[in-house]
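Problem statement: downstream parser choked on a complex file, so we are re-checking the raw output for the isopentyl-Coenzyme A run. The parser issue turned out to be on our end (a line-ending mismatch), but while we're here, posting the original submission so the record is complete.
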Amino acid sequence: MTEIHIVTPANRNLYEEVLEQSLRVRYSIFVRELGWAALQRPDDRDVDAYDQPDTVYILAIEGERVVGGQRLYPTTRPHLLSDVFPHLAHVKGIPTGPDIWEWTRYFVVKERRHGRTDCRLLAAVQEFGLEEGISQLTAVVETWWLPRFHEAGFKVRPLGLPHLVQDKWSIAAAIDIRQDSLDRVRTLAGIKQPVLVRRGPQRPVRDLTIPPTRH
Ligand code: A1S
């Protein structure tokens, strides 16, 4: 059975081994499979500037094995869109605030693709956002995500025109956290119950983030 676990600064001490495994799985997917050369490292771990003590991870776990995941990072601090891809948000600007989080490193291991893990992760990010008072996610995605979001019932607002990023047409977008999006993706996946597993101490993530800095 795949469980979707929330890892925050309040409980990450319970997940150190799983987090370490997730960095290696990410390396195999984002560097080896997708060829994101900028992430290459000799230790086979995908770690960047946005893997910080207050990063939130939503991980799909089977037993002890990480089979999928996604990462959320506060936009109150410099983040991937503001640091690396601001030109992708040239039309609408970069939305920031304590209720807006950046969404990155979404993955499902090959053996679990074409299955329900993907929908469960999409449901999880909406469920988590609703529970935590998050209003929007921002993300840089290849354009094939747009029909996927539409199918899932996610409300998406492009922040600029598509650009080529490593030869792939990509776009920056803001994605609303909404009950009707959660309902839609739950229906698609045949999910009737909340999917999130929360272990250990819990505190609202906005209380756990490092204070804002100027952009
Ligand atoms: C940033 C993302 C943010 C959200 C944070 O019939 P198919 O196989 O063509 O159906 C596919 C395609 O329509 C589309 N698709 C998937 N990968 C594609 C690609 N590289 N180029 C174009 N279209 C692509 O999605 C359909 C279903 O994909 P799937 O792989 O068969 O199954 P599943 O279970 O829906 O998994 C989708 C994901 C994206 C999770 C999985 O393919 C994966 O982990 N890929 C590698 C990581 C990745 O690309 N992450 C997005 C960037 S992070």
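For whoever reads this later: The mean pLDDT is 95.
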